[in-house]
Amino acid sequence: MKKFQRLGFFALTMAITILLILPAAQAVDFKISGQINRAILGGDNGNDSDVKFVDNDNSSTRFRFTGSNTFDENWKVGIVWENQMESNSSASTDIDIGNNGDNVDDVTFTERKMEFYVDHTKFGKMSLGQGDTASNSTSEVDLSGTTVVNYSSIEDMAGGFTFRDDDDNVISSIGSAFSNFDGFSRRDRIRYDTPKFGPVFFSASYMNGQSWDVAGRLAYEWDGLGKLAAAAHYTGADNQRDPYTQYSGSISFLHSSGFNITVSGGGRNDVSGRDEDPYNLYGKLGYKFGNWALSADYTYSENVGADDDEATTFGTAVVWNAWKSVEFYGSYRWHDLDRDAAQRAPGVGNAESLSAVMLGGRVKF
Question: The domain that contains 113 carries what CATH number?
């Protein structure tokens, strides 16, 4: 088996090498791009504190191979092959009890996208393979300039940190207590995007598990006033695993002065085994000037981890775009979870609040 694995790795290496050294063919142009995004993550759960060196899951370390070409003027065909490689993801690592060095994740290598698409100026775009579903990112439209460290997906910064009572009993993780209900992310699917109707276009996808989603997006810019972007989706996850329906939307406005505002919301209906429907509300205020971007946000999630849960968080962020493709950032976030005693294990008390600080940088290539 190991022999075949080595042969497969050798074949893949040779194929990539040939693609890199051969001159571009008439068919599809080819390039490599990606990013490294590393950070220092500190946290305090009310009982213990810790400092971790992590991969920032707000915008993880990754590399991609892309290619495209235009045929007969109106047709464009392209490929996307993108992979993620994280060492100690910020979304899954926890505060070590007694700082003993445990809870450090191994390196993970995962597929993000593996697809091809066919695009026509009049008929729209069809994509097939693993890639963004129509609903992906509909609750994450954000023009603040601070999304590399702070946006509506709260759990990306410190999702593995656990809420604990004053006796150090685990109640829930940040990742389980919050959700922005952002659709299906990336899946094996077929997706169709309409041509643009002015500033608007629509999307639909169908994927494994008999799931489907639809979405709409808007992007508009006024001379001398600013930019507006928005998105919304609806999913009918009527499948054999966990039938439910879900929705989300977000809108962001960046004024020409640099001030910006972002609002997001979403929820899920008919969740199996639950009496209450979970939902989330998110708001952010920001300011961009020169190479800097500042923001402050607030999130309220209800019934996400358990019925009658109330989870809140407040965060601030600063991003410095030092040079082209180079950013440095910092963020502070405070989290609180109010869970009814009936939803906690016997003998477990109220959750202590959680704090997290992240400092790091992203370099794109």
Answer: 2.40.160.10
Closest CA relative to residue 160, chosen from 314, 59, 267, 52: 52
Instruction: Tell me how many domains the chain contains.
Output: 1
**Helix, strand or coil, per DSSP, at residue 208:** coil
Tell me how far apart the alpha carbons of residues 289 and 228 are, in angstroms, rounded to a whole number: 18
* Confidence check: pLDDT of 352 > 50: yes
Tokens of 96: 């070590």
What's the CA gap between 286 and 278, in Å, rounded? 27
In a domain, 262, yes or no: yes
Q: Is residue 4 situated within a structural domain? A: no
CA distance 60 to 37: 6
Per residue in 243-265, pLDDT tens? 788 999 999 999 999 999 999 99
Host domain of residue 44: 28-364
Alpha carbon distance 61, 107 (integer Å): 11
Report how far Cα 149 is from the mean position of its chain's Cα atoms: 11
Q: How far apart are CA 247 and CA 52, in angstroms?
A: 34
Q: What phi and psi values does residue 7 have, to the nearest 5 degrees?
A: -65, -40
Phi/psi at 175 (5° precision) = -65, -25
Residue 19: inside a domain: no
Could you tell me the sign of the dihedral formed by the alpha carbons of 148, 154, 156, 160, in that order? positive
Per-residue model confidence as pLDDT tens digits over 36-50: 999 999 999 999 999
- Please indicate whether residue 135 or residue 240 has the higher confidence score (pLDDT): 135
Q: How far apart are CA 148 and CA 309, in angstroms?
A: 28
Q: What pTM was estimated for this model as a whole?
A: 0.87
